[in-house]
Every structure is written in C-alpha cells, then in structure tokens.
Amino acid sequence: MLHVDRVTDDAAQDTTRGRADDAALDLVPARRGADDGTRRLRIGYVSPNFSRHSVGYFIEPVIRCHDRARFEVIGVSFGPDDLSDMRKRIMAAFDRCHDVRARSDGDAARLLADLRVDIAVDLCGYTTHSRPAIFAHRPAPVQASYFGYSGTTGSDFIDYIIGDNTVLPFESQIHYSEKIVHLPDCFMPQDSRRAVAACRQTRAEIGLPERGFVYCCFNANWKFTPLIFDIWMQILKETDNSVLWLLDTNGAAVRNLRHEARARGVDPDRLIFAPRTRVEDHLARQHFADLFLDTLPYNAHTTTAEALWVGLPVLTCKGGAFAGRVAASLLNAVGLNELITSSLEEYKTLALKLARDPAMLADIKSRLERHRDTFPLFDSARLARHIESAYATMWEIWQRGEAPRSFGVSPL
Q: Are 8-192+380-408 and 204-376 the same fold in CATH?
C-alpha cells in the first residue's frame, strides 16, 4: 500500500506542476506580530461546489455552526449557480460570499488577499472544476486542504491537510506534501438536518423482490474493481434469495455489469438497478436495503454517510490510503467499528454472517438508530469547534514565524 501512496504523491506533484507553475505572485502580506487574541480570524472557504453537490450539502453545517464571535467566514465560489435551495442555504450561511467565476486565477487570489483572509481552505483539490493556481498565488498566510479531495496536492502552497487518525495516520506524513492535522472524531462533516422524503412505494414498485436479502452499493460504478465485484458475486452465490441493488448510471454500465455477473455464474437478474431520482427520495428508498457493501480501494464517502444517516449499516474493508479509509472513519464515529474489516476475506465472511443472522443485523441497526443522535458523527457543532481549534493552532504557529507542523486537536 505504501507504493500506491507514493504513486499518488508523484501524480499530485505532476498535476501541480502542470496547472500552477506560472502562478508566483506570492500575495501574502506580512501580518506576523502581536495579537491580543480579540481579533476574529478570517476564514475563506474556496470551492466550485457551493450548490446541490455533496460538498455543498456536507460543508454547509460547518459554515453555519462556526462561532461568529471568534471567526469571520467568507465564501469564494467559482462554480456554477444551479439556482437551488441548497445554494441559497450555503450563501446565507457565510458572513459574505464572492462569486469569482468570471475572474482569472490571479484576480481571484488578489481578492482573497485584499479581503485579508487569514486561512484559505481549499474544498476542491484536483476534483472537477479545480483551480489550484488560485492557491499557488499565496493569497493567505495559511492555506489548508479539507474534505473535498482525499489525497495530497503534492504542492508547496498548501500547508495543511485536515483529516483524522483513521484516514491519515501520522505515519502517512512521508506521502503528503501538506502537514497532517487530526480532528479527534471523524474529519468528514455531516448534515444532521438533511431531509428524507416519505417513502410510499413498496419493494415491488421499486423493482426489488418481495422477500429475500438485499445487499446494495450506491457508489459510482467506476469504483467497482474486478476484485470487489468477484467478492460480491461470491456473496450472492452463498446467500440464498439475495440480490445486489446498484445505481442505474447508464445503459452501458448496466449491460456490462450483468454480463460480468453471468460470467461469474450469477443470474444477471439478481442485479437490480435503481433509477436516479431526487436525493431526498433516494435516501428514503434505502430503508428497503439490508446491508450496504462498500468498495475498495476507493471507499464510499458521501454514500456511506447517507446510508448511516437513514439507518442502513455499511460493511467496509479498510484500505491503505485516505480514500480507502473514509468509511472506517465514519463507522468509528458512530460506534459501529465491528463493521470495519481488515481483509476482503473477512469482509466476505462478515457479509454472509450478517445475512444469515437476522438478530445480529437487527442489533446493529438498533444501535445505529440510537447512536445517530448520541455519537459524534452527526454533531455538526462539535465538529465546527474542533475545526476552529485546528485553525487557531495553525494561526498561532504562523504568528510565531514557525514552519507548518503536524498536530492533533484535543477532543472537547
């Protein structure tokens, strides 16, 4: 697994060189010196996804819960305005928000510098619509990567990456250009006010058999590797009256997956494909599933969080890199670490055991329902306090003229 991380780091550095080499304005002003601790720290969140997007859904509670007595929170948006209610919620959560879609990278960076942002937070990394050159201009004294990208940028202009001990153990530091910051629970924000529609359909009406065990995975199908698909087909063959419920992303994927199921000795009709629908309706229909099967080496991230929110247990296998450890982090933070396996053989064995032991699965579902309101995972205010502690430490380090360093945040 170390080799995989090393390749990821090298690829990130190549991407940085290709997209940010010409950015060298170094706009950051000299702001070190005495600070009486009464000035509000100015945090700038930078993203193309302040909209009906998973990043938007999950970051909005953090923005909303920030302590305005200690922090001023500014948004810098360079993504499309989808005119959604979600975008309106996010815009309203900021103290102020600036749309820089029409500005160059240099002009967007100058705006951050002119706003005297203390800590600029990249919520995008190298995902769709990314603009790393904004950060390469060094518009803020401290710059951090958080949530939107589960890997290193390989750059010298992002000082910190915010994670937790599960996704980013300190021994991973050799593979990261950024210094690692640990939040004490789970790094990933959640929306504890997320709406779930009332589900008025039956299993038959959504294409599921009336009886039998329903395994599911609502990940994007590019996460389905031949190895994980092999395991899934073995699980189906060894679980009587079971089906695997997946998302219908496109016709070619449906045909290919059914072909691969047949090639592995599984009736292709045991793969059921759910059509795309509104997020609220998709969350509601998940109560028809019995167990979510995670993917590896790239875990379910948003889809794990959604499943846990609606009371659906998620079975995962912890990988060797950030992207393969997110589900484990989420499960730890909701008190269900028995659903974290360390090998695909253990993963398969537990999947079969849960299908064959209804009492065991019912106990897990009952505890998930209780833990949702009492464990840290869905406590947005607690997460905001921990992130604020991280920002305060980053700022103190910079104020003292010290180089960025890895550190952990103490729990509340």
A: yes
Query: Residue 154: how many CA atoms within 13 Å on its side-chain side?
Result: 18
Q: What is the pLDDT of residue 215?
A: 98
291: closest CA among 225, 210, 358, 343? 358
Q: Inform me whether the pLDDT recorded for 20 exceeds 60.
A: no
| CATH 3.40.50.11380 for domain 8-192+380-408 | yes
Contact 348, 317 (CB under 8 A): no
CA distance readout (Å), 302 to 189, 197, 262: 10, 18, 30
Helix axis angle for 85-93 and 54-65, nearest 10°, is 30
Among 158, 146, 149, 179, residue whose Cα is nearest residue 384: 146
The whole-angstrom separation of Cα 6 and Cα 54 is 28
By C-alpha distance, which of 407, 411, 412 is closest to 182?
Answer: 407
Residue with tokens 């997110």: 326
- DSSP string across 235-284: HHHHSTTEEEEEE---HHHHHHHHHHHHHTT--GGGEEEEPP--HHHHHH
204-376 folds as Rossmann fold (3.40.50)
**Domain boundaries along the sequence of the chain:** 8-192+380-408, 204-376
Over residues 255-309, the pLDDT tens digits come to 999 999 999 999 999 999 999 999 999 999 999 999 999 999 999 999 999 999 9
8 A C-beta contact, residue 341 and residue 347: yes
